[in-house]
């Protein structure tokens, strides 16, 4: 099945729109806990870490196999969402956007507060030139987890592309501070 990039993007937006709308209704009026962290149980951690290391090295087959193992062992919604987000990233690197979108939807169905998956969707939108939509996703990811450095970084990039340089610099600085804090711990 050969789908154009625009049709995949349109399909992704349509599939995600209703989910995002339901998610917004659920969270409206509630205080969202700061710094929600994805906690991965010890039995999932090994496979997840192997997959992440393989993904960093560009070994997509090894990463996919490790994430499949991690998904089979995952028993908490946050674990499932984290693994599915990584599987989406593998699909993106393989230029299989339809599969990436499917994985991201499954990630958010497992845990609607998965900042990583929301940020990855923002990345796809930014890549497609939908800067305003990407900004909304990054801001939403930060509403869910205000300590998620990647969302601050990507929000800074998107704000820069939209001409909002001052805000972009503030977001990039915040990302740098959070990343340096993570390295110290």
Report on this structure.
There is one protein chain. The protein is mostly helical. The protein has a single domain, classed as Alpha Horseshoe (Serine Threonine Protein Phosphatase 5, Tetratricopeptide repeat). It is 77% helix and 0% strand. It is built from nine helices and no strands. It has helices at residues 5-27, 42-56, 60-73, 77-93, 97-110, 115-127, 131-144, 149-161, 165-184. Helix 5 (97-110) packs antiparallel against helix 6 (115-127).
Keywords, please?
0% strand; 185 residues; globular; Serine Threonine Protein Phosphatase 5, Tetratricopeptide repeat; mainly alpha
Number of domains: 1
Say what the CATH topology is.
Answer: Serine Threonine Protein Phosphatase 5, Tetratricopeptide repeat
pLDDT average, as an integer? 83
Give the H and E element order. HHHHHHHHH
Radius of gyration: 16 Å
Number of strands: 0
By oligomeric state, this entry counts as single chain
* Helix-strand makeup class: mainly alpha
Short description:
With 185 residues, the protein is mainly α. It contains 9 helices and no strands.
List the helices and strands and how they pair.
Blueprint: H1 5-27, H2 42-56, H3 60-73, H4 77-93, H5 97-110, H6 115-127, H7 131-144, H8 149-161, H9 165-184
Helix pairs in contact: 1-5, 2-3, 2-4, 3-4, 4-5, 5-6, 6-7, 6-8, 7-8, 8-9
């Amino acid at each position: 099945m050969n789908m154009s990039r625009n049709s995949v993007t349109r399909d992704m937006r349509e599939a995600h729109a209703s989910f995002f709308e339901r998610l917004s209704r659920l969270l409206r009026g509630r205080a969202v806990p700061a710094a929600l962290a994805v906690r991965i149980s010890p039995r999932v951690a090994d496979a997840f870490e192997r997959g992440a290391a393989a993904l960093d090295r560009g070994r997509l087959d090894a990463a996919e196999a490790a994430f499949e193992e991690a998904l089979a062992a995952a028993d908490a919604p946050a674990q499932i969402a984290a693994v599915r987000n990584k599987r989406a990233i593998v699909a993106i690197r393989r230029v299989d956007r339809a599969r990436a979108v499917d994985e991201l939807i499954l990630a958010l169905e497992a845990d609607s507060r998965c900042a990583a998956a929301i940020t990855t969707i923002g990345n796809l939108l930014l890549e497609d030139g939908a800067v305003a939509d990407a900004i909304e996703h990054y801001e939403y990811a930060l509403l869910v987890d205000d300590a998620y450095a990647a969302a601050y970084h990507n929000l800074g990039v998107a704000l820069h592309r939209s001409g909002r340089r001052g805000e972009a610099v503030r977001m990039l600085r915040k990302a740098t501070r959070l990343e340096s804090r993570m390295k110290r711990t």
